[in-house]
Amino acid sequence: MAAVPSIERAAHGVTSSAVLDFLKRPKNLLIGGKWVPAKSGKQFETINPANEEVLALVPEGDKADVDEAVKIARQAYEEGPWSRIGPHQRARYLLKIADLLEQHADELAILETLNNGMAISLARGMASGAADTFRYYAGWATKIYGETNPSDPSMFNYTLREPVGVCGQIIPWNGPIAMLAWKIAPALACGNVSILKPAEQTPLTALRIGELLQEVDLPPGVVNIITGFGETAGAAIAAHPDIDKVAFTGSTEVGKLILQASTGNLKRVSLELGGKSPNVIFPDADLENAIPTSLFGFCMLSGQVCCAGTRVFVQSDFHDRFVEHLTRYASNVKAGDPLDASTTVGPLVSREQFNRVKGYLDIGKKEGAKPALGGEARTGKGFFVDPTIFTDVRNNMQIAREEIFGPVASVIPFKDENDAVLQGNDTTYGLAAAVWTQDISRAHRIARALKAGTVWINCYNNIDPISPFGGYKQSGIGRELGKHSIELYTQIKSVYAKL
After folding, report:
1. Left (φ > 0), alpha (ψ -120 to 50) or beta: where does 482 sit?
2. Per annotation, catalytic residue among 272, 403, 417, 480
3. 60 an active-site residue?
4. Residue 453: which residues within 8 A CB-CB, separation 6 or more?
5. Taking 50 as the threshold, does the pLDDT of residue 401 lie above it?
6. Do domains 4-273+476-495 and 278-464 have the same CATH topology?
7. What whole-number percentage of the chain has pLDDT above 90?
8. What phi and psi, each to the nearest 5 degrees, are found at residue 474?
9. What tens digit of pLDDT does each residue of 243-270 get?
10. Which of 108, 86, 310 has the alpha carbon at shortest distance from 209?
11. Model confidence over 319-356: pLDDT tens digits?
């Protein structure tokens, strides 16, 4: 396997051996606590985007497998031990999962990098963050309260906050470990059961975490993992009449299809979708922080993040100076071997994504935008695109309107505060935004005015499980993380008792 030397450089021998052993083992679906092949017998290849080598064969689950998982999950929820487990025991399960994720963090990070292409430093951070997410929600398991309501003296009125039931959870390829934790941890904390479908491009860490879940003796059927394609397994989850809730992270286009499919039984839906986030730079910004952080804002995970700061708005009289500094700094960053600890930008996840980004580079130039840096996709093995910075961009250009999902930024001038807000909000999306200024009053004015679910002031891409994450407009429905995700995974019952 071509990646073996890189794996050995990235980890000590024990971890390298664990990763290679996992890659060699046959892969199956996790249904009802057992590893089983897809009913169709079909498999598909999952590859290393850095060298295009096949990493493993993965079962191609479809509607029949989803049906089986739903049946077993429903039994675990209604009849099995999970429905009789108290909140303290649920908390202990989540804490055990967090400990295992932490113990295997390096192994999981290497698997994530091999399958996704993200820089190993970022993958390690995401693996650590996943453990933090499970620990955070372990605390919530014992704090999901109902209320006692003031009522007529002859009536006792109270509410119960109860689990939703069987949850279908569809996660994307751009942060599988983190997204798995964001979905499964709150679902289990609230007493639900889960059917998880990882993206077809990046199924490996979900399958390995499935093995770790078995080590904590989680009751069978509480977490089920179906690998397969969105058009088959994902569609079956979205439309299934016995799934009570579906959570999806991915593109806005697919989110709309999931919302339509959910109407059959009016299941609950939460969606964390696309973005075209404005990163607003004022002349008084601290350049020592703003320059590297803005680069990170559009190059993190090779730009394949929904909250990437790909529209960089710079005040007109500061525009040229900022572009000069950003271009000079970014020129030292090249996409490279993601298992090398010094790499900050790895490959794109797939040939399809590589061709998409390459197409947008051509579109930008045809629209009249000028690449101050980059502008070309690489040739050869692996799906590598170096950081690209476009200038002479207008906010109505296609590269400024549509989600590229690559390390590509558009630098757009603005005249004043009002213009920055107007242009920043002139998008169908509203996931995230940032503002850079040392004027604290201006920072908070703009943070209030920008229509986005998250606004960063003098920083970018800071995410903590204590704080909600989600979008305005077509960037989604609902909030993940923080206490607000408890609302996604519980329902309220009012009880009236005549005294």
Report:
1. left
2. 272
3. no
4. 430, 431, 432, 468, 469, 470, 471, 472, 475, 476, 479
5. yes
6. no
7. 95
8. -85, 20
9. 999 999 999 999 999 999 999 999 999 9
10. 108
11. 999 999 999 999 999 999 999 999 999 999 999 999 99
Cβ–Cβ contacts within 10 Å for residue 285, how many?
Answer: 23
| CATH entry 3.40.309.10 includes domain 278-464 | yes
306 is catalytic: yes
User: Mind listing the pLDDT tens digit for each residue in 338-347?
Assistant: 999 999 999 9
Task: Please give the order of strands across the beta sheet that includes 223-225.
Answer: 34-36, 29-31, 223-225, 193-197, 166-170, 245-249, 268-272, 476-477
d(CA 342, CA 355): 26
Residue 5: pLDDT band by 50, 70, 90 thresholds? very low
pLDDT at 16: 80
Q: Which of 314, 328, 317 is nearest to 437 (CA)?
A: 314
- Sign of the CA dihedral 72, 76, 81, 82? positive
Spatial distance between the Cα atoms of 87 and 85, rounded to a whole number of angstroms: 7
What is the model's pLDDT at position 15? 73
- Angle of helix 87-103 relative to helix 120-140, nearest 10 degrees, comes to 170
- Percentages helix, strand, coil for the chain (3-state, rounded to 5) are 45, 20, 35
Q: Domain locations in the chain?
A: 4-273+476-495, 278-464
DSSP E strand boundaries for 12-104:
29-31, 34-36, 43-48, 53-59
Measuring CA to CA, which residue among 363, 308, 74, 287 is closest to residue 192?
74
| Catalytic one of 167, 190, 299, 306 | 306
Angstrom CA distances, 297 to 78, 159, 377, stand at 44, 43, 20
Chain position carrying tokens 């675990």: 76
At residue 84 the predicted structure's pLDDT band, cuts being 50, 70 and 90, is: confident
Q: Is the pLDDT of residue 31 over 60?
A: yes
57, β-bridge pairs: 45
In this structure, which amino acid lies at residue 238? Answer: A
Bridge-based pairing state of the strands 388-391 and 370-373:
antiparallel
List the CATH code of the domain at 4-273+476-495.
Answer: 3.40.605.10
Q: How far apart are the first and last CA of the chain?
A: 73
Mean pLDDT score, 139-160: 95
Lowest mean pLDDT among 57-61, 83-87, 226-230, 311-315: 83-87
Within 13 Å of residue 64, how many CA atoms lie on the same side as its CB?
10
Interatomic CA distance for residues 170 and 199, integer angstroms: 7
